[in-house]
Amino acid sequence: MANRLGEATSPYLRQHADNPVHWWEWTPEALAEAAHRDVPILLSIGYAACHWCHVMAHESFEDDEVAAVMNAGFVCIKVDREERPDLDAVYMNATVALTGQGGWPMTCFLTPDGRPFFCGTYYPKPQFLQLLSAVEDTWQGRRDEVEQASDHITGELRRMAGGLPDGGVEVSAELCEHAVAMVLREEDTARGGFGGAPKFPPSALLEGLLRNYERTGSDEVLAAVARTGSAMARGGIYDQLAGGFARYSVDNDWVVPHFEKMLYDNALLLRAYAHWARRTGDPLAVRVAGQTADFLLRDLSAGDMFISSLDADADGVEGSTYVWTPDRLRDVLGDDDGRWAAEVFEVTAGGTFEHGSSVLQLLSDPGDPERLRRVSAALLTARAERIQPGRDDKVIAAWNGLAITALGEASVALDRPDLLEAAIRCARALLDVHLVNGRLRRASLGGRVGDSVAILEDHATLATGLLTLHQLTGAAEWVTAATALLDTALAHFTDPDRPGRWFDTADDAEQLMVRPADPIDGATPSGASTIAEALLTAAHLVDVDRASTYAAAAAETLLAHTPVLARAARSAGHWLAVAETAVRGPLQIAVACEGSDSALLAQARRLAPGGAVVVGGEVDSSPLLLRRDRVDGADAAYVCRGTVCDLPVTDVGDLAAALNTSV
Question: Which residues are in the Spermatogenesis-associated protein 20-like TRX domain (predicted)?
């Protein structure tokens, strides 16, 4: 036998191609091999940017002694959780059910037909060898116990797959206010964020709160957004030299990050900071949105598309690219600037990270911004000479969809046409590579798609991004591509027995022991909440028959998932955002104009709240512009809420008044 990972489309799997372990990818052939040999499956799930995945690989999977035991007693399967989120979801639920917690690397032992009977996460080499021996002994000597355990776990997973109870309440302003109140009660008002360490960026929740603020004008809500947005942007979780956010902070103060940088985090945070900047003009929000966009374009680019992540480690050392000491600052900058930089960036002799090093923070803006720019540029140049983190170069459709939406919306907030151009290039490349025989694929590497089929979030986030491009360009190609994705989702991902519910995998995809269907917003918005957003938007951009189908599906989806908002609002940030949009109608703004340089259309896009549908063009060029024309030779904006429309306005001030905002 040999290791079979050399041709994988996942860089994470390729990192293990030279292991002495006889790794398989997850395939029917791998499961058949376990059945033929009558041995259990050892399933290891991780991802390229995961620090502890690298640690376990170095300690165990690269070790000949451990590999010999694994090869002799097991069929060993390696899975990239980002490429196969369906497998990750199923076996993470099993791990949490058995141990009370989850994480990566995930280590699961399965029967040859895929039923788990023992699960865990990271194991140091001595404990891992003991575990391998114990599992093998149990398999060979007490098979009945294995069968009982696997049957029990499988039964529990299927019971848990029922998800939310039936019987939601209608989406309403009162429900949104209830959810917001629940969230604000959990805010860490002293340090920013919601809940305690480890603190993950609450990107979708910030978007939901911003949409609530735009509807209600609540100063309390805006203050919560500002506290969390400022704390993250000034802490070590944010790269103060190059822009971009790390995955999470290990402490309550956002000081020390877990250093990997993920495309999805930065796309979602770009969207939130861009909307904060657009709505308030806050200088910090403007700066961070711009720098985060630049980080995407510079450091996460893969041609016209975007890669998945940057590692936490550089040459096996976590965070080594990013940390500093006072001496290192002086070596690069000289004594005067070195001492000044240490004070500005909170670099101390004792350090905030390992071995006396510090992660850069910028707790306040210094009085000399030009000096800050010069010093930062010098430090960034010196940092570029260090060993750099590894890149996971695979392209994930869903995460690129998030980037398309964020870049498009940020182009309006920051008045940067280059961001819209980047979003358009990404969308075209993604559709060229990832659409195969009319169906979307989830992952590619170097322009080659893998076997992993797209899940619900891929269809939903890409459709949302394409609808954003349609609104910003007026080009019909984007709404055509988006509706094809939505029609596929309606045909293959809905739950026929429970209206408004969605599965995360298609009905014609590989059938696992449980069909995943998780409605909770996590590090990324759930597929269900994102498809609701896409359907809600698309319903106003398509013909009447299709519009009614989309509107009904969006309403059913929201109704079925209001229990999430009512009971677990912190885990429903994107549901809150979509609900806020639905409560407003959603708001529709159609600008009758000639050409794409209409000043009124530009202002409509800037003034429109998050989630609003905005189109511009000549009469009858869009469903929202049917029989709506310019007024007395002037561009005219038609503002509608649901099916109720105001009289057209031709003045920016009147448009702002109609939107209950300020110019």
Answer: 3-157
